[in-house]
Amino acid sequence: MSNYVNEKISSLRRLASKGVSASSLDQIIGECSALVSDGHHVLAAYVIRHVCEEINDSLEADIPHADRHSALTNSIADKLSSILETIETNRTNVSPLLEDFISTHLSNLAALRFR
Question: Given a cut of 60, is residue 63 above it in pLDDT?
């Protein structure tokens, strides 16, 4: 991986380690957009960006309450960290992790809607 890609992945890992907040979501979306635009890890970056955009949009739709934020972000930061660690250590198959990430996100959305 080039230094540029390593820097982007490291930056994303630092952001994920801080948890998922409104400010970190914006930064994650920006870093993933840069990776997608540059053609690096396009599938992973696109999936992460899309999920983070959906979480961000959902949080902005209403005044974010702690329980709403928790419902939307439950386990997301941990799964994001796993994906990024896999990419950073050059393990090739992130597809199962991406599927789990998406599944968790969809479950979180469903749980929130049926509250």
Answer: no
pTM: 0.88
> Rounded CA gap, 44 and 83, in Å?
8
Each domain of the chain, given as residue ranges in start order, spans: 3-113
Mean pLDDT value of segment 22-32: 91
Cβ(49)–Cβ(69) under 8 Å?
no
User: What are residue 91's phi and psi, to 5 degrees?
Assistant: -75, 140
Tokens standing for 11? 């930056």
Q: Please give the span between the terminal C-alpha atoms of the chain, in angstroms, as a whole number.
A: 44
